Protein backbone atom coordinates (compact mmCIF):
# COMPACT_ATOMS: atom_id res chain seq x y z
CA UNK A 1 0.00 0.00 0.00
CA UNK A 2 2.06 2.87 -1.23
CA UNK A 3 -0.24 5.75 -2.10
CA UNK A 4 -3.32 7.32 -0.57
CA UNK A 5 -5.74 9.99 -1.78
CA UNK A 6 -8.52 11.46 0.32
CA UNK A 7 -11.90 12.09 -1.25
CA UNK A 8 -14.92 13.99 0.12
CA UNK A 9 -16.95 12.04 2.66
CA UNK A 10 -19.78 9.86 1.41
CA UNK A 11 -23.17 9.70 3.12
CA UNK A 12 -22.05 6.74 5.26
CA UNK A 13 -18.76 8.42 6.05
CA UNK A 14 -20.59 11.59 7.10
CA UNK A 15 -22.51 9.51 9.63
CA UNK A 16 -19.27 8.04 10.99
CA UNK A 17 -17.36 11.35 10.71
CA UNK A 18 -14.49 9.69 8.85
CA UNK A 19 -13.35 10.48 5.32
CA UNK A 20 -13.16 7.93 2.55
CA UNK A 21 -9.65 7.32 1.20
CA UNK A 22 -8.13 5.14 -1.49
CA UNK A 23 -5.02 3.00 -1.11
CA UNK A 24 -3.12 1.51 -4.03
CA UNK A 25 -1.95 -2.05 -3.40
CA UNK A 26 1.24 -2.87 -5.29
CA UNK A 27 3.05 -6.08 -6.12
CA UNK A 28 6.34 -6.10 -8.02
CA UNK A 29 5.92 -2.39 -8.81
CA UNK A 30 2.46 -2.72 -10.36
CA UNK A 31 -0.86 -1.67 -8.83
CA UNK A 32 -2.91 -4.84 -8.36
CA UNK A 33 -5.87 -3.39 -6.45
CA UNK A 34 -7.28 -0.18 -5.04
CA UNK A 35 -8.84 -0.30 -1.60
CA UNK A 36 -11.61 2.11 -0.67
CA UNK A 37 -11.23 2.76 3.05
CA UNK A 38 -13.20 4.63 5.71
CA UNK A 39 -10.81 5.10 8.59
CA UNK A 40 -9.44 1.60 9.19
CA UNK A 41 -12.53 -0.09 7.68
CA UNK A 42 -12.17 -1.64 4.20
CA UNK A 43 -15.28 -0.74 2.20
CA UNK A 44 -14.50 -2.37 -1.16
CA UNK A 45 -11.79 -3.33 -3.62
CA UNK A 46 -11.61 -1.62 -7.01
CA UNK A 47 -9.94 -3.19 -10.05
CA UNK A 48 -7.26 -0.77 -11.29
CA UNK A 49 -8.08 -1.79 -14.88
CA UNK A 50 -11.73 -0.65 -14.55
CA UNK A 51 -12.84 2.83 -15.61
CA UNK A 52 -13.23 3.87 -11.97
CA UNK A 53 -9.82 2.43 -11.11
CA UNK A 54 -8.19 4.32 -13.98
CA UNK A 55 -9.78 7.57 -12.80
CA UNK A 56 -8.52 7.06 -9.25
CA UNK A 57 -5.00 6.23 -10.47
CA UNK A 58 -5.04 9.36 -12.64
CA UNK A 59 -5.66 11.37 -9.45
CA UNK A 60 -2.55 9.79 -7.90
CA UNK A 61 -0.47 10.78 -10.94
CA UNK A 62 -1.65 14.40 -10.94
CA UNK A 63 -1.20 14.74 -7.16
CA UNK A 64 2.38 13.48 -7.24
Please give the structural blueprint:
Elements: E1 3-7, H1 11-16, E2 20-27, E3 30-38, E4 41-46, H2 51-63
Antiparallel strand pairs: 1-2, 2-3, 3-4
Describe this structure as you would to a colleague.
- The chain is an alpha+beta fold and 64 residues long.
- The chain has one domain (3-63).
- It is 30% helix and 44% strand.
- It has helices at residues 11-16, 51-63, and strands at 3-7, 20-27, 30-38, 41-46.
- The chain has a four-stranded antiparallel β-sheet with strand order 1-2-3-4, covered by helices on one side.
- The radius of gyration is 12 Å and the shape is globular.
- It starts with a strand and ends with a helix.
- The mean pLDDT is 84.
Amino acid sequence: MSEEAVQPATENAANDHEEVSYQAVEKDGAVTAIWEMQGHKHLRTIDPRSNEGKQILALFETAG
